[in-house]
Amino acid sequence: MITNMNILKNRLMEKGIKPTFQRLKVLEYLSNNLKNHPTVEMVYEELLKEIPTLSLTTVYNTLNNFLEKGLVSGVIITGTEARYDFDTKYHHHFLCKICGKIIDIDLKCGYALGEKRTVSGHRIDEVHGYFKGICKNCYKNLGTKPKGHSSS
Amino acid sequence: MITNMNILKNRLMEKGIKPTFQRLKVLEYLSNNLKNHPTVEMVYEELLKEIPTLSLTTVYNTLNNFLEKGLVSGVIITGTEARYDFDTKYHHHFLCKICGKIIDIDLKCGYALGEKRTVSGHRIDEVHGYFKGICKNCYKNLGTKPKGHSSS
DNA sequence: ATAATTATTATAATCATTACAAAGTAGAAA
DNA sequence: TTTCTACTTTGTAATGATTATAATAATTAT
Ligand SMILES: [Mn+2]
Ligand SMILES: [Mn+2]
Ligand SMILES: [Zn+2]
Ligand SMILES: [Zn+2]
């Protein structure tokens, strides 16, 4: 893990961000949760176990900082809370309305891949794409549930 | 305009929504602002001139109602506020970081057109896509502005 | 060591949205 | 018409995510 921390440290320094303990830990958490697209609260709650003095404000500031420097990417998909993605390579997302998971989607479209520089003559800086629906797994399990006269 | 109001009235009834005065006015406003992708506040502020008793809650409830019934579509793009689109046909959007305009974008991609039913095996219910950048017009005007030592 | 800069923390403020309950409206039943 | 009932609108309070502000701590420069 020491080696991994050094890699993260270098990433911060390359972007001109001073590698403080809190910043390293936030980045480490994101790198360990590639598939989770964590919310601010998730980052905060988890790191609080290790850093009892950690402030929520620091998590907000740190994530905003990372976002500005392009160290992480933001995923706006639920409308109620921002999520963060260690993976800055262009890709889309799928939000399952049943289990709430956010799944990475790779399309071969030129826009989705970030290859195209403009669209309809406008200069593109960011490309965001997402789907909402029912994921493969939840859809399969739908049949196993009672028809509707279930709960309480 | 009477004829137009009747068309809107029918649209509401087709979706099983009782065509009250407030609901008709909200729908009318959206239909007259196809290119604006209005926020809740924009709808409220404008209609308040005509309906001084209008409640912001009603606008929220009405728009949520329309959204559930598929009468309008939602555009989540700024992260800070929801926007609404009278046009429910699948299309993407472009947010200009300079002028703030939200521009309709039509792509020929099967997902953008809403033709594909699944992606990576997951059932698609909604497709959302947007770009952020600098629009054609703002980009053109960039050169005309002083280099940086401008304002006070 | 002292001063200046930057980071972190704690707390309050903001802003969009939702929850809730009171008051109003329209239409059916009596 | 009057009464009853279901639905709509309104006003206000609550919620929840995010940002602003100021105090404290840590780091860097002089
Ligand atoms: Mn992702
Ligand atoms: Mn549109
Ligand atoms: Zn699922
Ligand atoms: Zn523009």
CATH class membership of the largest domain in chain A: Mainly Alpha
Could you say how many structural domains of chain A there are in total?
2
Percent helix among the residues of chain A?
25-40%
Tell me the series of helices and strands of chain A, N- to C-terminal: HHHHEEEEEEH
Fourth-tier CATH superfamily name of the largest domain in chain A: Winged helix-like DNA-binding domain superfamily/Winged helix DNA-binding domain
User: Which assembly state applies to the chains in this document?
Assistant: homodimer
Which pair has the most extensive contact?
A-B, 32 and 32 residues
Head-to-tail CA distance between termini of chain A: 47 Å
The name of the CATH topology of the largest domain in chain A is Arc Repressor Mutant, subunit A
The strand count of chain A comes to: 6
The profile of the biggest β sheet of chain A is: 4 strands, mixed
Using only C-alpha atoms, the radius of gyration of chain A works out to: 18 Å
If helices are DSSP runs of H or I spanning 4 or more residues, what is the number of helices of chain A? 5
Report the β-strand fraction of chain A as a percent range: 15-25%
Tertiary shape of chain A: globular
Helical/strand content category of chain A = alpha+beta
Q: Give the overall pLDDT of chain A as a whole number.
A: 92
